[in-house]
Amino acid sequence: MGRVTAPTPVIPVPPADLPGTLGALRAAGHQYRTVKQELRDNLLARMRSGETRFPGIVGYDDTVLPEVERALLAGHDMVLLGERGQGKTRLIRSLGALLDEWTPVLPGSVLNEHPMHPLTPASRAQVAEAGDDLPIGWLHRSMRYGEKLATPDTSVGDLIGDVDPIRIAQGRTLGDPETIHFGLVPRTNRGIFAVNELPDLAERIQVALLNVLEERDIQVRGYQLRLPLDLLLVASANPEDYTNRGRIITPLKDRFGAEIRTHYPVDLELELALIRQEADLVAEVPEHVLEVLARFARAVRESPSVDPRSGVSARFAIAAAETVAGAALRRAGLLAASDTPEGRPEAAVARVGDAVSVTSTLRGKVEFESGEEGRETEILAHLLRTATAETFRAHLAGLDLSGFTALVEDGAAIETGELVSAAELLRQVGTVPGLAKVLDRLDLGDAPTSEAAAAAVEFVLEGLHLTRRLGKDVTDSGRTVYGGRG
User: Fold this and answer.
1) Domain count, the chain
2) How far apart are CA 460 and CA 442, in angstroms?
3) Residue 180 belongs to what domain range?
């Protein structure tokens, strides 16, 4: 087996027309701005042009994003508080798009020093000696974002820096600032630095961030080092961790200019929009099936059997949609081509029955109350049935479905299930009165595929069962049999 090497990151190449020397930069009219001024100016420019400020962020337009914008305009560092799966990290990473696409830097500077605003004695001497002939480099905004997941083993050296013994061994003295190996925070100078799950950072390590937030400098061991860092510091935390498992020390909380609470999607449409945006679906999932899953996620989140302190991540609904799509693809792969009209292979289209597998595969994503041990799958199955019934009523209430109930009169039954093809299900149903109106209500069009029509039929049968108009039985072979209630 050959040697495995890590992929080399693709570093953007600056355009050729950017100034190459400090003199050319001045002649071009470039003005030095701090990171917070840069963010403020670019945010205002997007507001005035009507451009999307935070692409990919769903459900926060009227709640969280205005608070984030106010914090950025005020020049405040911020901490985002919210349960798991509320998009805190996604939101923090999106802030980088508000930086200038390219910014000038001193080549080789680990602190990303601006040519007009050098920080270290060596850089200041370099600028003074070369003057306008000083060569400059350009840094893309994607390289101006730093992030650290706070873990109990994180050290001050990781974040701020430490003495580099190799440089001392090379002959430098302990008093020489060149012996310092800078940590993640100063290396993100002139950028945005994020600390995820800040309460998990040991309190003695949090102390190291106090100067960064207020005095805007760093301290490394016994060095008298004053580097006026220029960065936006953003942190995320879970409110439960914030008050119990770990905490943000009071002086550090006081130094954040804004504390912003995030939340789960406030309504069903936003939950659906999030699933559509984030789910990587390997098969077609009709809208009514996605709605069932969105309602299911919201029902789990609101259930008294679920620990509200841990939350139910938005990833739960996304993973549910992907699982259902996977079940549809499995069915399509297992069914023979002869089972479908004209000998074509079964297309992968999800049905509401495919959602049953979600209750077992995703129960590990939910923290239940201590008294519910052993009933987890049962609770999720009940909530899934409730979500299906609500979706059924929302779309098909008031519709005459007597044609479907008539199918099982006189002891007749309809079989569906995991490995029943669309053609087989439709053959059992035949020409049923009311199907066209069902397809219309479910937005499946005038001429849906046989697989989409089968998904609609199964949804109707399951809805009629949940509203007590049809009986239902599951055979040992995994087939679902709908019949009369007698």
Assistant:
1) 2
2) 11
3) 22-261
At 333, list the tokens: 């792969």
Residue 337 to residues 174, 346, 347, Cα–Cα distance (Å)? 76, 7, 10
Q: What angle do CA 159, 165, 170 make, to 5 degrees?
A: 135
Q: What are phi and psi of 306, to 5 degrees?
A: -105, 140
What does the alpha-carbon distance between residue 260 and residue 256 come to, in Å, rounded to a whole number?
10
The CA-CA-CA angle for residues 80, 85, 90, to 5°, reads: 60
Tens digit of pLDDT for each residue in 5-36?
545 556 788 888 999 999 999 999 999 999 99
At residue 149, the 3 state secondary structure works out as: strand
**Separation CA 321–CA 61 (nearest Å):** 24
Residue 163 backbone dihedrals phi, psi, to 5 degrees: -70, 135
- Main-chain phi, psi angles of 285, to 5 degrees: -120, 110
pLDDT tens per residue across span 321-368 = 999 999 999 999 888 654 455 556 888 999 999 999 899 888 888 888
The answer as to whether 310 is a domain residue is yes
Reference 454, options 484, 476, 432; nearest CA is: 432
With respect to residue 457, please indicate whether it lies within any of the assigned structural domains.
yes
Model confidence, pTM: 0.85
Residues 202 and 92 in one domain: yes
- Contacts of residues 170-173 at CB distance under 8 Å and 24 or more positions apart, as own/partner, are none
Residue given tokens 């072979």 in the structure block:
477
How far is the C-alpha of 433 from the C-alpha of 215, rounded, in Å? Answer: 75
Q: Which residues 6+ apart lie within 8 Å of 351 measured at CB? A: 289, 328, 416, 454, 455, 458, 459
